[in-house]
Each structure stands twice: as structure tokens, then as C-alpha cells.
Specification:
The protein is mostly helical. It contains six helices and three strands; from the N terminus they run ααβααββαα. It has a single domain, classed as Arc Repressor Mutant, subunit A. Helix 2 packs across helix 5. It starts with 7 loop residues before the first helix and ends with a helix. Strand 2 and strand 3 form a beta hairpin. The chain has a three-stranded antiparallel sheet. It comes from Pseudooceanicola lipolyticus. One of its GO terms (molecular function) is DNA-binding transcription factor activity. This is MarR family transcriptional regulator.
């Protein structure tokens, strides 16, 4: 059965499965490159990335919310990053119990190197897709997201 004779629901399912496969392939390659080139993991990269966007730091609960993971998942990663002096804990003004975590100078430098490589890797993996195709794909994904809520 060709695509024109296939029910629209089946085509949508096929697109979903292809998107998942592409995402998994790219993520697997990124995980491997981060491990080999930076002795790091994708979750560590994600934490560093979030903290890079919020240079004043984030409370652990805000960091977890931005990453859409539990506090427990973030706590272990942050503990290791603190022990490596890439992240530091700082007191929150007006709240003795609350702490923010933020990048140290070493963390900023380490993340910058990782982010530059990450961008290069993603660019290489998508080299076969033209600018026009990328724009179309972004538009399509935006439209899909609008209907998923």
C-alpha cells in the first residue's frame, strides 16, 4: 500500500516512529562522543547547560523543573559537579535554608568546550539536511507541538 492509500493515522504513526528512531540515533552518538571526548554524560551536559543559561544560579527545585527530572536525579549529578569544582552552592538571600547552584569559572570553561563540540557534532549529523529543509522541519515540529496539548 503506497503512502497515498495508507490511512492518515498510519502515516502519523510512521512519522512518530521515524522521529523516535532519529532522536535515539542522534542521542546515542552524542552520548558516546561526550563520554569519549569529555569524559562526561548527557545528563551532566544538560545540568551544565541549564546553569550556563542562568549564571546567577538556580535552586535545585528550579533546576529539576527546567530539566523535567526529579530532584533526586539532579542531586547526584550536582554533587559530582561540586566535587569537581565545576559547580558551587551559594546561599539564597533571605532564606537561610535555601541554596542555589551555579557554575564556577572552571565550569563555565568546561561547558563552553563541551557545547562547542556538541554543536559541531549535531551539525555533522545533520549535514545532509538543507537550510530550507531544516526550516520546514522546524515549522512542522512546531505545528505538531501545538496540537499535542
Amino acid at each position: 500500500m503506497n503512502a497515498q492509500n495508507r490511512p492518515l493515522s498510519k502515516q502519523r504513526l510512521r512519522v512518530w516512529l521515524k522521529m523516535l528512531a532519529a532522536q535515539r540515533t542522534i542521542e546515542t552518538r552524542l552520548r558516546e562522543r561526550l563520554r569519549l571526548d569529555h569524559d562526561s554524560t548527557l545528563p551532566r551536559f544538560d545540568v551544565l547547560s541549564a546553569l550556563d543559561r542562568y549564571r546567577d544560579g538556580l535552586r535545585m527545585s528550579d533546576l529539576s523543573a527546567r530539566l523535567k527530572v526529579s530532584n533526586g536525579n539532579v542531586t547526584g549529578i550536582v554533587e559530582r559537579l561540586v566535587s569537581e569544582a565545576l559547580v558551587e552552592r551559594v546561599a539564597v538571600d533571605g532564606d537561610r535554608r535555601a541554596m542555589r547552584v551555579r557554575l564556577t569559572e572552571a565550569g563555565i570553561a568546561r561547558f563552553a568546550a563541551m557545547a562547542a563540540d556538541h554543536e559541531t557534532w549535531v551539525n555533522e549529523m545533520m549535514a545532509g539536511v538543507s537550510a530550507t529543509e531544516l526550516d520546514s522541519l522546524i515549522d512542522l515540529l512546531d505545528r505538531m507541538g501545538e496540537h499535542s496539548e
